[in-house]
Amino acid sequence: MTRLFPRLLLASILVLALGLAMFARPPSYFLLMDWRVPEADRAVNLEFVFYQRPTLNDCDALAGRLSQITLARCPQCTLTRLECTTKIQPGASHLLGTAPFELPTGRMASGVVVYRADRPADGTAMCQAAHDATVQTANPAVCQPANQPRPLLAPALVADLPAFVIVGLALLGALLAGWLILRYEHLHAHLSHDHSDAGPQKVHGQPTPRIGGIALAAGLLLAGGALLIRPLGSMQHEYALLLLSAAPAFVGGLIEDLTKRVGVIERLLLTMIAGAAAAWLLGGVLNRLDVPVFDQLLVYLPFAVIFTAFAVGGISNAINIIDGVNGLAGGFAILALACLAFIANQVGDALVFYGAAILAGSLIGFLFWNWPSGRLFLGDGGAYLVGFMLSELAVLLVVRNPAVSPWFPMVLLVYPVFETFFSIYRRKVMRGRSPGHPDGLHLHQLIFRRLVRASTPLRRNSRVAPYLWIANVFPMLMAVVFWNRTGVLLLCALAFCLFYVINYWAIVHFRVPDILKTRLS
Questions:
Q1: pLDDT one-digit tens code per residue, 33-75
Q2: Rg for the chain (alpha carbons), in Å?
Q3: Which of 150, 348, 515, 519 has the smallest count of CB within 10 Å of its CB?
């Protein structure tokens, strides 16, 4: 009965957040512009489709700038359509991707222009002329021939000093906050310590502070303040909304770290509330999985919002599950965030790029205290913060960039996701126990007990994470190489799941030869 009231309260808040995401979600706007270019006795029509803008004012401002630029270069051109719309037709959405198109197109950092003419040669000639005229400018229109692959441009989001400074500040903030936590450990140890006998999943040898999430939050906030120096339009506002959305997951986990009284169901509800908040505030609602049955269901907004909130909550909990040895969750997240940032840079998504880079910088600062020394743990607050940020940045990358396959982030995160499903199957089906009941049979725990040897438990603990970092490098590289090819990514995800099961079964049933074990004299 004592847990019934908070669960009902959180469930009510979740329903409210889902309702806001369905009916009060702020729209984003596509800019559509058509121009007519007279050419002697014939004309060429230019059809512009620009990527989503977060507000109507942003869309109007972009339209004004582009109209001025176009008329300055082509005074005789006539604007025949100007529209800021929340929805575009499938054909226009197709233009923003990389698949071949029947007409020549010009790829810009902010959108695509189609050259439509009665004679194809006229459209091709104007496409090439626009390319030649803008190739040395800050926003070139790269001509892409008809019926040919149309690769995206790679905006230089990363190649400047302020970006490195911002990430460095995130690292410094987390590093300094971690030092303060350890420096004054004696003041909060009675609340923050994670004891080695607290459950069968524990593999550390002495009481350790588990409030490393505070260090991550410090890095995220410090870097967020530094973002104000960058002229990135509405990105700073979106970053603030992203951190605000993360608050329920982080605060709920941190309260568990300090009180040990927040149950699994409550934490799952809080992470789902965070996902619903991001769907409401940032429009982060999955609308495709490139799986026919699911895509038909995701057309219905209520299903899409609920599915997205559940997916974000599930991945957040999955990161918490793999946070069982020094450096594992943090190192894995850094690898995944680097991949997210790389692809976000390719498609020009500043929010996802900076969000991923800043969190990776904060994690590096945290890992200074966590791996290999194990002096500070992420705790539930840190694990849920990392899990939410990872999953939400992945959702936003897919939602805001039609060219990115929804299976790209799935391959990046296949290890914690499959670990979660496999653990549920192992506990419920094979052992007849509650899926929420902790045990000591996760893959990283088996590696700790059966593969790794060292002179002290701490050194054994610190040697587990590299096994799984290395195991995840290959699927992550495949995800980066084939980020827009759903079929290949689906095969990669299935291959990793098979690899996981085979290795788990082998570790359980076979004695590992000593030559393969890590030794330390």
A1: 898 887 656 678 888 888 777 677 778 888 888 888 888 878 8
A2: 25
A3: 515
| 8 A C-beta contact, residue 400 and residue 52 | yes
Question: Closest by alpha carbon to 419, among 437, 390, 402, 442?
Answer: 442
Beta-carbon contacts of 224 under 8 Å, excluding residues fewer than 6 positions away, are 236, 239, 240, 243, 358
**Digit-coded pLDDT (tens) for 104-128:** 998 887 788 999 888 888 888 888 9
Cβ burial of 121 (10 Å; 0-12, 13-18, 19+) is exposed
Q: Which positions ≥6 away from 62 have C-beta within 8 Å?
A: 31, 50, 53, 110
E-strand stretches of 161-315: 193-194, 208-209
Pairing of strands 142-144, 208-209: unpaired
Six token digits for residue 465: 């994470």
Three-state DSSP class for 231? Answer: coil
Please count the other Cβ atoms lying within 10 Å of the Cβ belonging to residue 328.
Answer: 28
| CB neighbour list of residue 258: distance below 8 Å, 6 or more residues apart | 191, 192, 211
Cβ-Cβ contacts under 8 Å for 58 (sequence gap 6 or more): 29, 233, 234
Contact assessment for residue 110 and residue 152, using Cβ atoms and an 8 Å cutoff: no
Q: Are 177 and 214 in contact (CB under 8 A)?
A: yes
What's the burial of 150, exposed, middle or buried (CB within 10 Å: 0-12/13-18/19+)? buried
Instruction: Give the whole-angstrom CA distance, residue 10 versus residue 52.
Output: 33
Average pLDDT over the chain, rounded to whole? 86
For 399-457, the DSSP string reads: HH-TTS-THHHHHHTHHHHHHHHHHHIIIIIIT---TTS--S-SHHHHHHHHTB--SSH
Determine the Cα–Cα distance for residues 51 and 109; give it in Å rounded to an integer. 9
Quote the tokens at residue 25. 């979600």
